[in-house]
Design a protein that fits this description.
Layout lengths: L1 H9 L2 H36 L4 H9 L3 H17 L10 H38 L4 H4 L1 H24 L10 H9 L4
Helix pairs in contact: 2-3, 2-4, 2-5, 3-5, 4-5, 4-7, 5-7
């Protein structure tokens, strides 16, 4: 019971940790699937045009960035929430909001990685048929990347806005109840 009280009721540390973990999970799973989709196309294309390996490698690696973005979000949740330095810095409400930030950003990273893998596979197919279009073909999966970056930036901004130095401060729940329950003299 002390665990639940300390990490979920008195502080927001548990909620924030759940958000960070889910963000990394969604981003990592999406990146793995996106890379698998692009790599399946690349392997077949390399059997026909091995000289295009370098271009195919770049297109195959692109969906992996969302996993890194999710890791950055998780790291910032841990840092600003006080998980890394054992200094709890967030209230339960801020922890719940950070959990939702992690979940929402993780879902965007997951879906955009899979979508980027599909577009990368199509770009690999284009480059196989018309190698001179390889430079332009990379633009299509990069367009999908834009929304993964938007989710990263939005999550980071929200985390920083919720936990500014000297801004939203942690206050134990007991002290809040004492202020509400204790009558004024």
């Amino acid at each position: 019971m002390d665990f639940m009280h300390l990490y979920f009721l008195e502080t927001g540390l548990g909620w924030a940790a759940i958000g960070g973990i889910l963000c990394v999970m969604f981003g990592g799973v999406g990146s793995a699937k996106g890379i698998r989709i692009a790599a399946a196309e690349a392997v077949g294309a390399i059997s026909e045009k091995p000289e295009l390996f370098g271009k195919f490698l770049v297109l195959t690696a692109l969906p992996g960035t969302q996993g890194f973005y999710a890791f950055i979000i998780m790291f910032m949740i841990a840092l600003k929430g006080g998980i890394l330095d054992n200094k709890v810095a967030i209230s339960p409400l801020v922890g719940v909001v950070m959990m939702f930030i992690g979940i929402a950003a993780g879902i965007v990273e997951w879906r955009s990685a899979i979508s980027q893998g599909e577009v990368s596979a199509a770009s690999i197919n284009l480059t196989t048929k018309r190698p001179e279009e390889g430079g332009r073909a990379i633009l299509f999966p990069v367009l999908v990347e834009t929304y993964a970056v938007v989710a990263l930036l939005a999550a980071l901004l929200m985390i920083f806005w919720l936990t500014p130095d000297g801004g939203v401060q942690y206050q134990p729940v007991e002290s809040i109840f004492k202020q509400v329950i204790t009558p004024a003299p």
